[in-house]
């Protein structure tokens, strides 16, 4: 299987940064209390990866909770209510339901959501309309349903959700994901991949300051390129030549790729 550059190079490890640890608390709390939460931040910061990693641990029963069913759904921009219901039914059951009526389908959806405990992860939540947000709130508040509801989104996500007072007042956990703090970049990146293990702080800060800017997607993309260059040169560690050539292959300058 071809590995996407944004996934990082082979051998990349999951780093338990402070924000990943906080995301684990959010996912666990929203699931165990069948509550509402939101994780938001700009693109490339690792929101979806963090939620997926934490949710997979729950679904595998590696935490203290009974394993819930974790369902991730993503809607088209500005979805209609029918599209929201259809997408949820398809995600949960594998079919679009047995009726052409949205109201009948909504009842089917409520019955399905009442069947077993679930964590519903709404990815790219900034795409939702106010009506879609209100429908999800209604599904969550129904006394028969058994679900935690976690919104995950990029730029504008919190602003979209916060405009709906009935939802905002119900959000129990809110985590804003930010770029990796510069002070912990060297330690985090040395643990991220073996080729960085012997790199000094100055070298790793140089890559971060000029290219990655604390953004995990940038680090993953750069690392995929650097790993290929190192392999072709028969090397196992990062050095200045590899860094220079990697910068050149990313448009000649990290700041342009920002």
TrEMBL record:
**What Pfam family is a match for this entry?**
AAA_22
The cross-references to SUPFAM superfamilies, in alphabetical order and at most eight, read:
P-loop containing nucleoside triphosphate hydrolases
Q: Sorted alphabetically, which InterPro entries does this protein's record hold?
A: AAA_22 (IPR049945), ExeA_AAA_ATPase_DNA-bind (IPR052026), P-loop_NTPase (IPR027417)
Question: Which stretches make up the ORC1/DEAH AAA+ ATPase domain?
Answer: 32-161
Q: Which PANTHER family match?
A: GENERAL SECRETION PATHWAY PROTEIN A-RELATED, PHOSPHORIBULOKINASE _ URIDINE KINASE FAMILY
Name of this protein: ORC1/DEAH AAA+ ATPase domain-containing protein
**Taxonomic source organism:** Actinoallomurus spadix
